[in-house]
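Exercise 7.
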Amino acid sequence: MPKLARAIKTYIRAKDENRPYLMAQAFMPDAVLDMQVKTDAISFPSRSEGLATISDVLVSRFGQTYENVYTICLAEPPAGHNSFS
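Solution. The predicted structure, written as tokens, is:
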């Protein structure tokens, strides 16, 4: 399985199963997450810096705020890509 696909799968498992410790397998310690949320139904900070903050936002706080929200991927990651952009 390509690195990007594994990272996405691990992130989804971490979020959907509320397992923040798995995020270290999906994001680098110095990762930066920029979000553009185009709905009023959910709320995220526009920028999160570092693994601990990203894990808190995407897993811990998300799980405390929203229930029964699951993630699915409808396509494979683009070939040749090893990181999110």
